[in-house]
UniProtKB/TrEMBL annotation:
GO terms for molecular function: oxidoreductase activity. This is Short-subunit dehydrogenase. GO terms for cellular component: membrane. Keywords: Oxidoreductase. InterPro entries: NAD(P)-bd_dom_sf (IPR036291), SDR_fam (IPR002347). PANTHER family: DEHYDROGENASE/REDUCTASE SDR FAMILY MEMBER 7B, DEHYDROGENASE_REDUCTASE SDR FAMILY MEMBER 7B. Pfam families: adh_short. Belongs to the short-chain dehydrogenases/reductases (SDR) family.
Length: 243
């Protein structure tokens, strides 16, 4: 059976992806910081789908431990999903370096640190799928979340370069831009229904995109149109908007 490694596996989106892949009979390595939570998820998935699930401790910002972490997976995974992320608070991050750093370190540096190692191994093996959960927030910076958005922009660009590099090795890289999703991350936000989806729909879209070898997906198609319009607005107009 193929194995999928899910990084940030306690995230609501990650849990839906884990169930989707388990239903397709993938064995799973679920990696996260909260071991009690991840062990509960492990038991639930094992019972429901009868696949092997290995829980592992993983902190995206403990860069120096990433090489050892990968060695300890024992089985090198065919699929790797980067699902961890930290939205943080924009206003706080403008004035407080620790908050700004945490946003950049989690969403960008942590992802680059672990995927650099994953990419080397997949390139050697000439197979593998890397899935990165990025964000439409990275498509254009706006005042309400440009520190998180700039980290996601960096991540999107990194994934694009990785896809280009690994193409000739037969390794596929999928960039996912979910739009608004009803998860712990957004529970205090008033999300517009038309632009909002569920973790289960994100997982289903990823499953289809893997099959079709898609490069980048917007989970709700309307986001593709919204972001084209937003990207086309001249800066002289965009800078005056309250976004
Ligand atoms: N929800 C949305 O609307 C939305 C939209 C676009 C993109 N995304 C992206 O989708 C991904 C999943 O988010 P979600 O919506 O499912 O939110 P979530 O449930 O809040 O999940 C975020 C996850 O990231 C983990 N995490 C944070 N810092 C970490 C670190 N240093 N090391 C390891 N894990 C860490 C958290 O683990 P702990 O429990 O240990 O804190 C948590 O499991 C994120 O990358 C997010 O940016 C979400």
């Amino acid at each position: 059976m193929p194995t999928a490694l899910i990084l940030g596996a306690t995230s609501d989106i990650a849990q839906a992806i884990a169930r989707e892949l388990a239903a397709k009979q993938y064995d799973l390595i679920l990696a996260a910081r909260n071991m009690n939570y991840i062990e509960r998820i492990q038991k639930d998935i094992q019972i429901r789908y009868g696949v092997q699930v290995k829980p592992m401790y993983f902190d995206a910002t403990s860069y120096e431990q990433h090489a050892d972490f990968l060695k300890q997976t024992e089985v090198f995974p065919e699929v790797v999903v980067v699902c961890f992320g930290y939205l943080g608070e924009q206003k706080k991050a403008e004035a407080n370096w620790d908050e700004a750093y945490q946003i950049l370190a989690t969403n960008y540096i942590g992802a680059v640190s672990i995927l650099n190692l994953v990419a080397q191994e997949m390139e050697k093996r000439k197979q593998g799928i890397i899935i990165g959960i990025s964000s439409v927030a990275g498509d254009r910076g706006r005042k309400s979340n440009y520190i998180y958005g700039s980290a996601k922009a960096g991540f999107t660009t990194y994934l694009s370069g990785l896809r280009n590099r690994l193409y000739t090795s037969g390794v596929h890289v999928l960039t996912v831009k979910p739009g608004y999703v009803t998860t712990r991350m957004t529970e205090n936000m008033n999300l517009p229904k038309l632009l909002t989806t569920t973790p289960e729909k994100v997982a289903k879209s990823i499953s289809k995109a893997i099959k079709k070898k898609k490069n980048t997906i917007y989970v709700k198609k309307i986001w593709w149109l919204v972001m084209i319009i937003i990207r086309c607005l001249p800066e002289s107009i965009f800078k005056k908007l309250n976004l």
